[in-house]
Amino acid sequence: MKSVLISIALITIYLSGYSQNNALLKYPFSLPTLKYTYNALEPYIDKETMDIHYNKHHAAYVNNLNAAIKGTDMENKSLSELFTKMSKYPAAVRNNGGGVYNHNLFWEILINPGDTIIPDILKKAIEKDLGGMAKFKTDFENAAKSRFGSGWAWLSVDSKGALFVSSTPNQDNPLMDVADKKGIPILGLDVWEHAYYLKYQNKRPDYISAFWKIINWKKVEENYIEAIKK
Ligand code: MN
Asked: How many structural domains does the chain have?
């Protein structure tokens, strides 16, 4: 009886840890529920940008991905499976599948006010793998600023469990076989103009600076702990 209860408890923990992502990572895809209001990230990200970004851009990726997958053998595959063989699938699945996954992650790692203290396990990993917080910040900002056109900057975990910083074009991400540097993203910054243009216009660096004020480091650390298990 005791072992049954322990099993149930473990399954419950497992499912709750995966509740948001797993439910969303299979066809038919749906928009995740935002855990905050559209104005919650002000003044760093304005209400109108959040509303349009979530209800128009993210929703379009969800709808277009479902349309691209409907009636094909991709219906039974998870997004993660599709990403590992991304180069074999249509561009619509790459662009919209990335769009769905990347935005799900992005909304999850934002909070206002952001955490001022980085939890210990993650902090030690940043020190060990990335040369400390100051260097990580500079490298991440450079990745975000130097991405020409549209794309993302990432903090990810590689196959050996080490953190690395990278950027990808368009809606690609480090999980895809097409990525230069492959790994599991734990933090991402959307540098498409749709993410900042209404408030920051051409001043992408100001938007990148503001990002540091609204990071949910507790969630990033949770993502890190999940990622190093794999
Ligand atoms: Mn976006």
From this structure: 1
